[in-house]
UniProtKB/TrEMBL annotation:
Protein's cellular compartments: Secreted
Bias (Low complexity): 76-118
Keyword Coiled coil in record: no
Signal peptide start-end: 1-23
Family matches, as PANTHER family: ALPHA-GALACTOSIDASE B-RELATED, ALPHA-GALACTOSIDASE/ALPHA-N-ACETYLGALACTOSAMINIDASE
E.C. numbers: 3.2.1.22
Reactions this protein catalyses: Hydrolysis of terminal, non-reducing alpha-D-galactose residues in alpha-D-galactosides, including galactose oligosaccharides, galactomannans and galactolipids
Protein's UniProt name: Alpha-galactosidase
Length: 506
């Protein structure tokens, strides 16, 4: 294989850098709240199922270019032609949290697995790369291995990034005659196992993707009711991580009522079936539930998997960041070791953010202990519209250490910065613990610069006496002097920026 940074590879990468692939591409984002990118989808001269795409709302935040007419995946879908929109409609019936009568009116099989997630993986949030936002359906062995090599070359592996995750569209639309998923021979000519071996040789781990329905969101085979066969195949290949999506859910698996314990819901049951299949394999596979924050997943996610998405697909917009943080702060008690609220992909390098907004994005994902799965391709990273500054944000050792701390499982949580401080949505002040000490994070949510202040004694666990040293986690430097517990600490924050501090006894 060519060295990733050889001149030839750089030239080839440069030549393939036209428009960003997420704009106006099949299965790419075409809308959503706050979305300012391309809203059209590719259409062929003869609109057919194969070459015409329409923009379908898959959630409040995300619309996606989907084929106008679905083709049949391995298992027939009982959903309407557009799986995403039909499952979203179903999803809206999930929202109530009140206890209902439904739990007794459904007959959950007593054989539904109750396996807990493996304790051999997923203690701290997953860090890595995911192909989707960079390549969509145009994924390939070459691109996945290039990403793996770049994790090493850019020092991201050393910083803690470990997962190289393949998303949707990696296989053929039909299973083989023995019912197995088949890697697309054009995209993965050597199969997935060969890719897994190479990724393992680099000291990294590999993720695969499937769906808890009859077909994936891009209409490839789903795993519902075929979990054991698929899990065994992935284990044989050496898979370390599974992202398990929520498209094309057959009608009889919908939840039309509420539950006292949503672990008994049909939604949870679909994910529990896969949890049981994974538990039967001879290797730990981290299980990432991608059911879009439906069915009160934060109440049962930790009994089934290692992380769970809190929303529909993310959007590369500031509005999405504010929304997902606001959602997440209502469910921070769900977060602990082996249990992580997934705020969805890191959009650094995507969208049109200021450096301050990127710092806030990264910091919030780190201090709320979300998995951090980012994108990049040669166009973004190595030929650096994704700047060294952005790589520097992703590699910030102190924020990553907070995310990956092995002695404290809890995230930072909102606190009242001083008596009478205003409450905002999302909150602006957060405090948490790590093995290094106490941390404070402050988001300036407004579009102009502001002075932020907090009283040190208002920070939970610092106490009301003594004096403290304050360390800036972005610069890696201590602020000069020391601060009494009664001191009013102030900082001037640029619009949409986030301050990150470690506070220890002076
Ligand atoms: C839905 O129908 C399929 C096919 O008959 C069946 O295997 C499955 O158990 C049903 N799901 C539920 C939740 O009843
Ligand atoms: C990106 O942001 C800058 C600064 O806010 C703005 O001037 C520019 O028009 C934006 N570009 C796009 C493509 O939205
Ligand atoms: C702390 O300082 C800020 C900024 O100077 C000021 O607005 C605020 O009133 C002060 N708070 C206290 C409790 O002194
Ligand atoms: C950010 O700046 C705005 C405008 O001055 C202010 O209203 C907001 O409270 C600030 N946020 C923080 C966290 O200081």
């Amino acid at each position: 294989m060519l060295l990733p940074h050889s001149p030839l590879v750089l030239l080839l990468a440069f030549l393939s850098c036209f428009a960003p692939v997420w704009a106006n591409s099949p299965y790419g984002q075409c809308g959503g709240s706050g979305w300012s990118g391309d809203t059209t989808c590719p259409s062929g001269s003869k609109p057919t199922a194969a070459n015409s795409y329409t923009c379908v709302d898959s959630s409040e935040w995300y619309s996606q270019c989907l084929q106008a007419t679905s083709t049949s995946a391995g298992m027939p879908s009982t959903a309407a032609t557009s799986g995403v929109s039909s499952t979203s409609t179903t999803a809206s019936t999930y929202t109530s949290t009140s206890a209902g009568t439904g739990a007794s009116s459904t007959s959950i099989s007593s054989s539904t697995p109750t396996d807990a997630p493996s304790k051999l993986t997923g203690k701290t949030p997953a860090l890595g790369w995911n192909h989707w936002n960079a390549y969509g359906c145009a994924v390939s062995e070459e691109k996945v291995l290039a990403a793996a090599n770049s994790l090493v070359d850019l020092g991201l592996k050393d910083a803690g990034y470990e997962y190289v995750n393949i998303d949707d569209c990696w296989d053929l639309q039909a299973r083989d005659s023995s019912g197995h998923m088949v890697p697309d021979p054009t995209k993965f000519p050597n199969g997935i196992k060969a890719v897994a071996d190479k990724i393992h040789d680099l000291g990294l781990k590999i993720g695969i993707y499937s769906d808890a329905g009859s077909a994936t969101c891009a209409d490839f085979p789903g795993s519902l009711d075929g979990e054991s066969v698929d899990a065994a195949l992935w284990a044989e290949w050496g898979i370390d991580y599974l992202k398990y999506d929520n498209c094309n859910v057959p009608g009889n698996w919908s939840d039309y009522w509420t539950y006292t314990d949503w672990y008994e819901s049909n939604s949870a049951k679909r994910y529990r079936q896969m949890a049981g299949a994974l538990a039967n394999q001879d290797r730990p596979i981290q299980f990432a539930l991608c059911n879009w924050g439906n069915a009160n997943v934060w109440d049962w996610g930790a009994r089934v998997g290692h992380s769970w998405r809190m929303s529909g697909d993310s959007s590369a917009t500031w509005l999405y960041f504010m929304s997902i943080i606001s959602t997440n702060v209502n469910h921070l008690d769900a977060i602990d070791f082996y249990a992580h609220n997934d705020m969805d992909m890191m959009e650094i390098g995507n969208g049109n953010f200021t450096v301050e907004e990127e710092r806030t994005h990264f910091a919030a994902w780190a201090f709320l202990k979300s998995p951090i799965l980012f994108i990049y391709d040669e166009c973004l990273f190595q030929l650096s519209t994704l700047t060294t500054e952005q790589v520097g944000i992703l590699k910030n050792a102190e924020l990553l250490a907070f995310s990956q701390d092995t002695t404290v499982g809890a995230p930072a949580k909102p606190f009242t910065a001083y008596s009478g401080a205003p409450t905002t949505t999302p909150p602006e002040y957060y405090a948490g613990q790590s093995s290094a000490g106490t941390h404070v994070f402050i988001i300036n949510t407004s579009a102009s610069a502001a002075t932020k202040a907090f009283t040190l004694s208002a920070v939970p666990s610092l106490g009301t006496g003594g004096s403290f040293k304050i360390h800036d986690m972005w610069t890696g430097k201590d602020l000069s002097g020391s601060y009494a517990a009664t001191a009013n600490f102030t900082v001037s924050l640029a619009a949409h920026d986030t301050a990150a501090y470690l506070i220890t006894t002076a």
